[in-house]
Write a structure and sequence with these properties.
The complex is a heterodimer of chains A (110) and B (115).
Chain A (H helix, E strand, L loop, with lengths): L3 E3 L4 E4 L4 E7 L6 E7 L6 E7 L2 E5 L2 E6 L4 E6 L8 E8 L6 E2 L3 E6 L1
Parallel strand pairs in A: 2-11
Antiparallel strand pairs in A: 1-3, 3-8, 4-5, 4-9, 6-7, 7-8, 9-10, 9-11
Chain B lengths: L3 E4 L2 E4 L5 E7 L5 E8 L3 E10 L2 E4 L6 E7 L2 E6 L8 E8 L10 E2 L3 E5 L1
Parallel strand pairs in B: 2-11
Antiparallel strand pairs in B: 1-3, 3-8, 4-5, 4-9, 5-6, 7-8, 9-10, 9-11
The chains are: A mainly beta (110), B mainly beta (115).
Chain lengths: 110, 115
């Protein structure tokens, strides 16, 4: 079993839709939860970071972590064509390196 | 100028050839990483280095070697390339403050094809 599981999609939504992206994980020691965004032909960039459980909001983006279920989510409100990208979840314990999901490719149709 | 640069950006090589991918950074970070990205497999860590004298194997180091020539430079070598090393390769950096680098800064990637 992979440490981090993510539905690869692809996911296609109309502009203005609410998008939900999810990852599950098996390692209960993970404490730091990240979402990276990767545009075509570019390297990933950190989008959001959450420590432990709870919600974090940044503009149209909300990250949720449910450690009891080993489940994290990223919500995008009022999605825009510029949000079209691959979204990768990533996790780490205190000291070790990042474990990435496979990424979900999102297309927002104007 | 980009903070993390990779050369070459694209490379086609033949089976059995030795090839080196280079990474340079201007962020002043101590930690550097090499990943490969494959469809359906995501990003997998090949090697990482927490400072110039520290080199560590990642998840998939077989068939690869690295050299940390300076704080700013980290090279990945394929000693004898094989077709299943065809992938997109990323270099990344992070600092070592606080939580130890949950934010990694990625280069633009090198697309390597081994025929």
């Amino acid at each position: 079993q992979k440490e981090v599981e993510q539905d690869p999609g692809p996911l296609s939504v109309p502009e203005g839709a609410i998008v939900s992206l999810n990852c599950t994980y098996s390692n209960s020691a993970f404490q730091y939860f990240m979402w990276y965004r990767q545009y075509s032909r570019k390297g990933p960039e950190l989008l959001m970071y959450t420590y432990s459980s709870g919600n974090k909001e940044d503009g149209r983006f909300t990250a949720q972590v449910d450690k009891s279920s080993k489940y994290i989510s990223l919500f995008i409100r009022d999605s825009q064509p510029s949000d079209s990208a691959t979204y990768l979840c990533a996790m780490k314990t205190g000291a070790n390196n990042l474990f990435f999901g496979t990424g979900t490719r999102l297309t927002v149709i104007p | 100028d980009a903070d993390v640069t990779q050369t070459p950006r694209n490379r086609i090589t033949k089976t059995g050839k030795r090839i080196m991918l280079e990474c340079s950074q201007t962020k002043g970070h101590d930690r550097m990483y090499w990943y490969r990205q494959d469809p359906g497999l995501g990003l997998r860590l090949i090697y990482y280095s927490f400072d110039v004298k520290d080199i560590n194997k990642g998840e998939i180091s077989d068939g690869y070697s690295v050299s940390r020539q300076a704080q700013a430079k980290f090279s990945l070598s394929l000693e004898s390339a094989i077709p299943n090393q065809t992938a997109l390769y990323f270099c990344a950096t992070s600092d070592n403050a606080g939580t130890g680098g949950y934010e990694q800064y990625f280069g633009p990637g090198t697309r390597l094809t081994v025929t």
